Amino acid sequence: QVQLVESGGGSVQPGGSLRLSCVASGFTFSHHAMPWVRQAPGKGPEWVSAMSNGFATRYADFAQVRFTISRDNTKNTLYLQMNDLKPKDTAMYFCGRYPGSWFAVPETNYTHRGQGTQVTVSS
User: Fold this and answer.
1) Rounded to an integer, what distance in angstroms lies between the CA atom of residue 93 and that of residue 102?
2) Which of 11, 97, 102, 118 could form a disulfide with 112 if both were Cys (CB 3.0 to 4.6 A apart)?
3) What average pLDDT is seen over the chain?
4) In the chain, what's the furthest Cα-to-Cα distance?
């Protein structure tokens, strides 16, 4: 059974940083590309970033400079380092699993998603 458990969210002031983690189980983590997706209240899911099984990366335009995705296949864990956070980054952040080793098209075409971790940015 595929399980994805996110953690690391919290409340920060604008300009602050957070590092999100997603621990995966129930499948061979190193075989799959993995995305981060966020959803703000009242809005639909928004793709943030993704990493292939071979460590290639892609970012949404808003995340290109401020966010860094990484993974540790020895720990079955996906990370998202977020710097210079802004109030518009406030959302529930989820990790997902793509069907294969490369990026899905469209980017939101993940087959599984965790319960999420809340990120709140306010002064």
Assistant:
1) 21
2) 97
3) 96
4) 41
* The token pair that represents 38 in the structure block: 């966020």
| Per-residue pLDDT at 105 | 85
Beta strands 34-39 and 18-25 are unpaired
Give whole-number Cα distances, 20 to 38, 42, 69, 116, in Å. Answer: 12, 22, 9, 10
The reported pLDDT for the residue numbered 51 is 97
Tokens of 42: 């009242």
Going by C-alpha positions, the residue among 24, 23, 26 that lies closest to residue 7 is 23
Per DSSP, the three-state class of 53 is: coil
10-27: average pLDDT = 98
Residue 100 tokens, joined: 């294969």
